[in-house]
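Working notes for the structural subgroup meeting. M.R. asked for a predicted model of this chain before we commit to crystallization trials. I am recording the input and output together here so anyone reviewing the notebook later can reproduce the run.

Input as submitted:
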Amino acid sequence: MGPGRTAAESRLKAALIMSGIAQPLCRLDELEEGRARGFDPLAQGRDSVFALRHRNQVRVYRNRCPHLDVRLEYRKDRFLSADGQLIVCYAHGAQFLPATGECIYGPCLGQTLEALPSCERDGWLLVQMPEGLPLPG
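Returned structure, recorded in token form:
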């Protein structure tokens, strides 16, 4: 990453944060197919949201299992099954569809992850953070 890109990132992040419209998470080209990444857009010390690319669609979810209000990953950026086809809560083994966040196996069967509104702008993935987003345990 060159110095020009770093300066452009800083300007974009500052403008979006000042506007209160959306928070930048990452450049879209940094989010690989079949992978997920956690983010701490509110600078609270842990990843409160995660983004994934599945079947070339990008989704952003709150990092919270609907079963017991715990974070989903067992270590940094480990939100998906080994084959990248399902989101997994490593505390309970619940499995969720990446496209909808619906639980298809586990103690929260039929419940869904909280999807967050997101968009792409100038190659960046932006997310609209809800007011007062509490941290999962």
